[in-house]
Amino acid sequence: MRFLQIVRVHKFSGLLLACVSFGAQATEVALAGVFPGKALVLINNGAPRALAVGASTPEGVRIVAVDDSGATVDVDGKRRRLVVGEQTVSVGATGGASESVVLQGDSRGHFHAQGAVNGVAIRFLVDTGATSVALGRSDALRAGVAYTRGEPRIMETANGQARGWLVSLDSVRINGITLRNVPGVVLEVDMPQALLGMSFLNRMDMRREGGALYLRQRY
């Protein structure tokens, strides 16, 4: 039998934030939540601040509007709409856009992300110790992955050995980032949540600052 290690230690989990960066000297604004007339924002990975509509910060961030689903912010004349859990956009000085995601860790330093496989909603645990994106049987069936056509393997997991299959996933999406033909594995047992492993993460620029993990698509 051949063995493939897919799980080591679950290193990250947390909250998905809407984030936008502005200008050559980028000001990063993340939306952590909304309240009546106020937005809970993180600026340049700082501590959360509850700002009322019309309020401005020393960094030049102004809250333009807040509603039940998100907030509109203005930074140096550039206005953007932020919605928690939806597509994130990073805007540079040239006006070009690239997709990025900011994950805020919990007290244990874990990061979770809401995403999709083949267009079907899947909740992921970010795991830099997993060599591939890993799905349990139920998630794979929901996503229409014909995993039994893949190459069978005996996998080493955090809970011991399990039968699995090597597959190619048509698409994997995390917020606004979508990758095609992503190597993955499917276990014959169910998993508490899917693992976002290095077959996805190695195509990202990853940066961890404080309690936040920044992902930006490289290719």
What does this molecule look like?
- This protein has about 220 residues and is mainly beta.
- The protein folds into two domains: about 5-15 and about 110-215, Beta Barrel (Cathepsin D, subunit A, domain 1); about 15-105, no CATH class.
- About 5% of the residues lie in helices and about 55% in strands.
- It contains two helices and 19 strands.
- It has helices at about 135-140, 200, and strands spanning about 5, 15-20, 25-35, 40-45, 50, 60-65, 70-75, 80-85, 90, 95-105, 110-115, 120-125, 135, 150-155, 160-175, 175-185, 195, 205-210, 210-215.
- Strands 1, 11, 12, 13, 14, 15, 16 and 17 form an eight-stranded mixed beta sheet that branches. Strands 2, 3, 4, 5, 9, 10, 18 and 19 form an eight-stranded mixed beta sheet that branches. A three-stranded antiparallel beta sheet has the order 6-7-8, with no helix packed on it.
- A hairpin with a 2-residue loop joins β14 (about 150-155) and β15.
- The longest helix has 6 residues, at about 135-140.
- The chain is elongated, with a radius of gyration of 19 Å.
- The model is unreliable at about 1-15 and about 85-95 (pLDDT under 50).
Report a brief summary of the structure.
Helix content is 5%, strand content 57%. It has 219 residues and is mostly beta strands. The longest helix is centred in the middle third of the chain and has 6 residues, at 137-142.
